[in-house]
Amino acid sequence: MLNFEFFTPTKMIFGKDTHKRVGEVIKSYGFHKIMLHYGGGSIQKNGVYEQVTASLKDAGIDYLDFGGAEPNPKLELVEKGAQLCKDHGVELVLAVGGGSAIDSAKEIAVGACYDGSTWDFSTKAKTPRAALPVGVILTLSASGSEMSASAVITNEKLGLKRGYNSEFHRPLFSICNPELTFTVNKFQTGCGIVDISMHTLERYFSKSPDTPLTDAIAESVVRQTIAAGRRAIKNPEDYDARADLMWASSLSHNDLTGCGRETFMACHQIEHELSGKYDFVAHGAGLSVIFPAWAKYVYKHNVPRFVQFANKVWDIPVSQENPEETALAGILATERYFAEIGMPVRLSQLNVGDEAFYEMAEKCTESGGRTLPGWLPLNTKEIVDIFELAK
User: Least enclosed by CB within 10 Å: which of 204, 336, 363, 369?
Assistant: First the structure.
């Protein structure tokens, strides 16, 4: 097990009707002026917006309304939000939504305390030194951004999607009411299931020494996500299934499932190029295509790890005579599950052709300036090969 630091200061407020307490929660911290950040209007249609604003008003919290967050959140909106925070003396940014609204809120909070473009942080040219606190009301179980140190943003002008970690990204509090996910459609529920699984599996499949306890936690999170995912797809208002997915979302990306392991999410890096190039590709849908292709490409470089995954997660018996057969069976079981819950498993299902494979691979490696680490290091050629496998 490698040395590690585990720091998750986010206060989790979990359960039915908890979002209606947001005003008193914010008041308890002493804030008076906040930005309310959300997406395209679903929270207005389902009544959540009215409930949240009523709670804020009852607590005497003044709020600046700022909607417009969208999938693959955009730098232009972030910079506009950051300036509004400066202009209006905002003390906290409250995100109501899923990963896109939360990541956008995190970037706004950092930008409100910086004189330049937050893209400086995405490119690692600068390191954040301060940020406004961020609060969350979660409406989609997927990204784990409600407890994570990461944020991902898209620079439309450059056609690049980049993320970075900062302790300033950790939300001050996250209010997680599984009831708010009842109306999430099958496709977005499926995208969330994939994202939860991948945040766990990318850590699990990292190049690291043995970590049996962390492995067991990760395997349990994935197994429960698979089971709860099936139930939520079948019955969208199954509270316990939605609750399991919501809690798994938080655990998958708050670093718990990677304690003692290196973390470099190669599949996420490759997928960021895909959805950065093709804005219509949902992040979870891109991951459901990329992961099986990546796994088929690299599994022979650590067969025992993939055998363990197949056995512990999918209950596939271990073949002593042909362990590679077991390893591949686990990958195929994952691919079949993604398809079962309505996710694409080939680029053709996303209407993505091979015309930009090399361009995306070059961007991913920063024109040869970096190699994606792992059991098999990935350069431009290897990433193109993975795209080919995913066709």
Answer: 369
Q: CB of 134 within 8 A of CB of 106?
A: yes
CATH of span 11-180:
3.40.50.1970
Q: How far apart are CA 293 and CA 301, in angstroms?
A: 14
Q: Is pLDDT at 332 greater than 90 in this prediction?
A: yes
> What phi, psi does 72 have (nearest 5°)?
50, 65
Measure the CA–CA gap between 72 and 104, rounded to whole angstroms. Answer: 9
Rounded to an integer, the average pLDDT of 133-159 is: 94
Measured distance CA(306)–CA(301) in Å, rounded: 10
CATH code of domain 186-390: 1.20.1090.10
Q: State the amino acid at position 298 in one-letter form.
A: V
Model confidence at 118: pLDDT above 80: yes
State in Å, rounded, how far the first CA of the chain is from the last one.
37
42 sits in which H/E element: helix 42-45
**What is residue 336's three-state secondary structure?**
helix
Residues 137, 101: Cα–Cα separation, whole Å: 10
Domain residue spans in the chain? Answer: 11-180, 186-390
The phi, psi pair for 145, rounded to 5°, reads -65, -15
d(CA 368, CA 383): 12
Express each pLDDT in 266-292 by its tens digit. Answer: 999 999 999 999 989 999 999 999 999
Model confidence over 46-78: pLDDT tens digits? 899 999 999 999 999 999 999 999 888 999 999
Contacts of 285 (CB under 8 A, 6+ apart): 187, 190, 191, 194, 343, 344, 350
Tokens of 37: 């950040």
